[in-house]
Please model this.
Amino acid sequence: MFALPAVLNKFPGTTTSEFRGQTRVVVPAALCWDLLRTLKEEHEFDLLADVTCVDYLNYRDATDRYGMAYNVVRTSDNVRLIVRTFLNDPEPTIPTTTTLWLGADWMEREVYDMFGITFAGHPDHRRILCPDEFVAYPLRKDYPLQGRGERHNFPVLTRREA
Amino acid sequence: MALELPENVVVSKLDALANWCRKNSLWPMPFATACCGIELMATGASKHDLARFGAEVFRFSPRQCDLMIVAGRVVMKMLPVLQRIWQQMHEPKWCISMGACASTGGVFDTYSVVQGIDRFIPVDMYVPGCPPRPEQLIQAIIDLQDKIQREGTLSGREFETDARQQMKRALVEMPQLTMLDSARNPTF
Model:
């Protein structure tokens, strides 16, 4: 293992917790990119296993709306860290991590597609799963489960027309 | 005046002859998007052997097909593709909606899954099941063959009847469907 507290001394406002053997670091959004860079360049966390997000709208005791989660791994000794940071409306924005791990490209596009988080500096910042014309962010909690009629909004082909 | 015919001559109607030819050489277009596609492959494979019913020639080009088998859920991003493929197929053409998802959306009552392809393209035969057994699909193809033989015409005027042009009732009655007015002009 590596000395996590020593790393975090440089980042005021971070907290750590552990649950079932998983270490979680909560970092202020302004320091998030810098912490990830430090982890990668000085502590050999060479793999970004996942980038995802949670919408905490109406969640009990939640103070912030969007919780970003970066799952970083040091493959040499299999150390795994969950780096969390919180963002809020109206413009949830965070610097892209594609500058650190190229593999973040599609994962950040998916988070943008589903939650509408803007990744500043992303080289290809567009939707990845939903159609380009789609305007909503479907995994936000205020988006209805059955959508707003997008699934019905198509021309109807009859026998005569085709 | 009675007409003498040689014994090896059969008299029929031209429509019936065309139907007989059409129904026994259906060329399926496999629009397989999910697990129903696996059963569709099994139907075409040696154990169930769709060739027994003259429908074994799966082609992946809509220009060569006259039976579209939609096997699996269709999402809103896929539906324009489905409609384009349907329009590219030559007449006369038929469509089988295979499985719960293609027919009704199945368990996927979510924003992205089309709640039954029959809302947007004409469907001739529905196959229930999740996924259906190959026997069920074969039964649907046999039923479709019967239907072609029964009501098919050389000119295809059975497709022109008003009953075949009607919009799906569920689509008209959708309560939240305020966007239907713009259905002819798809925007999201």
Notes: The mean pLDDT of chain A is 88. Chain A is about 20% helix and 25% strand. Chain A touches chain B at residues 129-131, 133-135, 138, 143-160, 162 (CB under 8 Å). Residues 29-43 of chain A form the longest helix (15 residues).
